[in-house]
Amino acid sequence: MIIFWSILALLTIIALGSIWRGSWIVPIIFLILVGLAWLQWGNEKDVTQWLELKKLRAELGNSADNVIKRLKKQLEQNPKSAKGWYLLGKLYLSQQNYSAAVDVFSKANNLQPNEPEIMLNYGQALLMAKQPEAAVKIWKKLRDHYPENSDEAKALDAAIKQDGLQ
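and the corresponding C-alpha cells:
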C-alpha cells in the first residue's frame, strides 16, 4: 500500500507541475497511470483479504493437525456442512487415519446422499479401513451414477470384481 501512495504522490507532483506550465497531456497520462496503479496496488479489499489469509496461514502453519483442529471447530458450529465433513475426511485419508475418515465420510454421506465425490471417497476409506463389503456396497450405489461404458463405471466394476463380491 505504501508503494501505491508513493507513486500517487509522485505522479501528482508531476501533473501539477505540467498544468502550471500549461500542458494538459501530462495530467491525462497521470489519470491513466493512477488508474493502473490503483488496479495494481490500491484495491484495499484485496489487500485486506490477502493480509487475513497470511495471518491464517501463520496461525495454522503447514500442519495438517492444526487444519483439522480448525475444521473441527467450524463443524461444531455448523454440523450440517456436508462439504466440511467431506474435507475433514480427505484430511484424515491423507494422514492414513482410516477409521476417522470412515466416520466423517459417513456423516457427509448422510447429509448429502448420492453425491458421487463423497461416495467415492467414503468407499475408499472403507476399503482402507479393511471394511471391503461396506466399500463394495457404496461402490455399487455409486456405479448407478455413471453411464454403462464410461471410464468411471469400468473402474468401479474392476474394483468391485477385485474384492470378489460382485
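(Above: one complete record from the training split.) The chain has two domains: 2-51, 63-162.
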